[in-house]
Specification:
By secondary structure, this protein is an alpha+beta fold. 59% of the residues lie in helices and 14% in strands. It has five helices and three strands; from the N terminus they run αααβααββ.
Length: 85
């Protein structure tokens, strides 16, 4: 489990869930937990959808949101880097 997710208490998760939406928060948690020590994530949208039971449009919207905020950088198809680790 990523340190950020580990140290967020239930109240903090509820606040971020209310702001982002519960499903987007689950996707972000999945990304944090899937990133390697350098922040790289090797992802397939279908893999995220299946593992945490969210829709493809929700995953795509979350990726676009994180990219627009410069939190997630697309290296190439299927490879992203978290810019906060």
């Amino acid at each position: 489990m990523h340190w950020l997710v580990k140290f967020m208490n239930e109240r903090e998760k509820a606040v971020f869930g209310a702001i982002l939406g519960e499903k987007k928060l689950k996707i972000i948690e999945w990304m944090l937990n899937s990133a390697d020590e350098c922040g790289f994530i090797f992802l397939k949208i279908a893999q995220i959808c299946e593992s945490i039971n969210v829709s493809k449009p929700t995953v795509i919207d979350t990726i676009k949101l994180l990219e627009s905020k410069k939190v997630l950088i697309k290296i190439k198809n299927g490879v992203y880097k978290l810019n906060v680790i």
